Amino acid sequence: MVIQNISSGPNEAKLLLTLAEKRISVFTAKDAKEILQMTDAAAAHILMNLVRKRRLQRIEKGKYLLIPDEAGVDRYWAEEPWVVVPHLVDEYYVGFWTAMNYWDMTEQIPYTVYVATRKQKKKSSLKFGNQKFQFITLSEKKFFGFIEAKTNKTKFNISTKEKTIVDGLTYPKYCGGIPEVAKAMWSVRKNINWQDVLKLAEKVDVNVVIRRLGYLLNILEIENNVSKLIANNLQRYPYHYLDPSTSKNKIESSKEYGLIINRTKHELLGWKDY
Q1: For the segment 198-249, what is each residue's pLDDT rounded down to a tens digit?
Q2: What are phi and psi of 126, to 5 degrees?
Q3: Which of 30, 22, 34 is nearest to 66 (CA)?
Q4: Are residues 117 and 242 in the same domain?
Q5: Exposed (0-12), middle (13-18) or buried (19+): which is 159, by Cβ within 10 Å?
Q6: Would you state the torsion angle of the CA atoms of residues 202, 204, 206, 207, taken in this order, to the nearest 10 degrees?
Q7: In terms of Cα–Cα distance, which of 146, 165, 25 is closest to 94?
Q8: Both 54 and 171 in a single domain?
């Protein structure tokens, strides 16, 4: 690998070496000030120079990514999103389509990193490098069902497989639509507790989520006991759309689950033929 040699002043070198020695990838302007023991203005000047020299990359105001030597001549570096996300929001979990990919519930690699938050950010999205971070603010009653995962670089929060499915049924648009949610359900059909999924759907307290769960379990022909239990205890009216993320063209209705079906069977199940 070719390493680009970029000259640095003593303060710049001190900051870069300290970050590298402590294995810090993402840091704040305050961190830099404390390392360098200088004023805000002086630290800001050092940071600006290192961004210009492409030794640092600005994530958002006051937050930076260290670009290591192995980035090579073009100085391009993309950290795993798990390293960056914990520095962008306090109360959060990685979820939706991103969690589906993490749990091998989809073969799609979403360009956007979806992050559930408790507190709304000033900007609902952030473009950083070749990735986009989308922040979805959830109410307190929906903000649950995540665990702490670990990589060799960091710890981060991510929705469980069960909650990932429930979030997909609640907000299909953040998961590629109901067909992607159906594929995710199929992929984990043998290693997930569907009674637990139903309990989480009930906890979310959105009736249409339970309807969508029952309908998809039924057409996928998995866990018939749960789909029948849902059908027998549903409040079916008024009818709601199966997939609100797509056109509202009615194909048929499901009286059993109180849904307006606006996805064809081929869209929902055609992937099983491949």
Answers
A1: 999 999 999 999 999 999 999 999 989 999 999 999 887 899 999 999 999 9
A2: -145, 125
A3: 22
A4: yes
A5: buried
A6: -10
A7: 146
A8: no
